[in-house]
Amino acid sequence: MMVLASRTAVLSPPARVVWKALMRPDLHPLNRGFAWPVMFHDQSLPRIVESSEFDRVVWSSPWPTVPDLLLQFDVRPETRLRWTLLAHTPAPGQQTVEWLRDQVSHLVNIDLRKATSY
Asked: Which single residue of 19, 21, 61, 109 has CA 20 to 30 Å from 80?
């Protein structure tokens, strides 16, 4: 698989809290009354393709228009979360890759931060 995009974010909750949230995309980790993740109108909840306890989660594509993608999350100490968007060749066009990157950035930097904040 080829890497389409990858970024790192530093989150405030402990790494295990972030990992647990990523493992249960159907359940808000703190039960605060809103869904996690906040899926856009054309997305479905991802399924867990692979995981390694407390440090890695790989999701299936939540985007029906690009179903062959994988979204890998690597959780490191100090809660450094690295997400990587992976695809088989041929890769989607640059405009699609930029849109996907924006979607994942929103998911991590807004939705996940809200879902795991104390």
From this structure: 61
